[in-house]
Write a structure and sequence with these properties.
The protein is an alpha+beta fold and about 210 residues long. The chain has a single domain, classed as Electron Transport, Fmn-binding Protein, Chain A (Pnp Oxidase, Chain A, Roll). Helix content is about 20%, strand content about 35%. It contains six helices and 13 strands. It has a seven-stranded antiparallel sheet with strand order 2-1-5-8-9-4-3, covered by helices on one side. It has a two-stranded antiparallel ribbon with strand order 6-7. A hairpin with a 2-residue loop joins strand 6 and strand 7.
Amino acid sequence: MAEEAKTTIAFNDIPAHHAYTIGSGLIVPRPIGWLGTVSADGIANLAPYSFFNMVANNPPTFVVAPMLVGRKDSLDNMEATRVCTVNVVTDETFAAMNASAATVDADVDEFEHAGLTAVVSDGCPAPRVAEATANFECRVVDMIPVGRPLEEGRPGSGMLVILESDRLHVADRVLDGHHIDQAELKAIGRHAGAWYNRTADALTTLDRPE
């Protein structure tokens, strides 16, 4: 089969925000890192991030990369307290997740703003979303600058935050032994702009070759 017509793009030749819109539109769907954090002054914060994934399992290890231009309070809070929660976004919390993405003052509690309940666990001072189907309690193990330094005020860099989890809270209805019922979970995936996908509407299976 012949290769279809393609445009070749040299990323050095285009603005960084164009590289963002192109890359984030192609690397899809992405899981959403819905992070619960707390400031050094005890103010709860909740914000979603789409540069997020799980990268190891012993212990469960996650990476999230907040941008340094227009940085949210989450990064400041993780630097100060070295803890956070990762809350799983599903159909039930889809609208609330979107509400928590609003830009509000640092002294505003995003849990209250989004109409959610903050729960603090014994093992982690960062708040988790009571309404979320699952919550990982995490600690920050490293922060690594990534991308080029800021140039002419354009976004070009972020902070890669590595998180490890030693505790999970998960709804009984989705837990099947040591597996998660994917149809019951109804997870939400991130695309670009205002685009998301509901996995409950698009689940399929494909057996791996032996």
